[in-house]
């Protein structure tokens, strides 16, 4: 009708009938494959999504326009170690096989113990789970269920990368140390493997003290610096860290930098990369077809969407500074 304007399209992408939140990507034949946690949008409250999450799959040529493929991974049958829901993971390719590491829990433990499992595929569509979990928290360094003050056992969000310098695959995991004040035990755990099946759990790469949790770690090497991205929220600051920062605690994406991958991580400038005002949480660094890195994130709130948005945002171009800090430029389409 003359004089009427189309309503603005909602900001961000998600399947029409599902929430989308934590995600991970892999490239195959020049196309980006995104795997993401999903739950129906008709649930009575968005927070219920965590207990019913499955893994969705979408593809894109440009990191902006996504085509939904379907559900890639679901919880196991009742009584299995992963019969509650599927949580965050990552995918890596080795000799033509794709390895998806994912987090889950067992209803027999009331979902209180998090472990990491594995599914494999040769086409990124059909996935076969390996029996049993591959990794869990090691009591030498990490908090276990039953330790004083431990309400859950954190061992989730594995990111697996290959380091050609030592020939190992390295996993970075959200965990908690087994000592220190309870509100400051959040850390990034470390494990390594030669074959992606047998894993040796090692000491954490990040010194605890700032947060009760450091979620969805992303290790990214650029030049001679290692950038460690993670997410946390304003409620997860330790009392000591809240007292030493300027301004208010933030919810969003954070980044530390080191000259080596096994420790020494520190903020480069402001530790907050994307704060509460961005409505962003967790990220991945993905290289575009032009060779430049993009930061992808998902949003709690978005223009054109009421309530909890649960969508992936359009990319941010990443510029790396000599001191290890980064600058982000939101691409507009």
How does this structure look, described?
With 333 residues, this protein is mostly beta strands. The protein has one domain: Glycosyl hydrolase domain, family 43 (Tachylectin-2, Chain A, 5 Propeller). The strands form 5 sheets. Strands 17, 18, 19, 20 and 21 form a 5-stranded antiparallel β-sheet that branches. β3 and β4 form a beta hairpin. The longest helix is centred in the last third of the chain and has 6 residues. It starts with 17 loop residues before the first strand and ends with a strand. The N terminus is likely disordered.
CATH topology: Tachylectin-2, Chain A
Q: In angstroms, what separates the terminal alpha carbons?
A: 26 Å
- The helix/strand class is mainly beta
Radius of gyration: 19 Å
Oligomer description: single chain
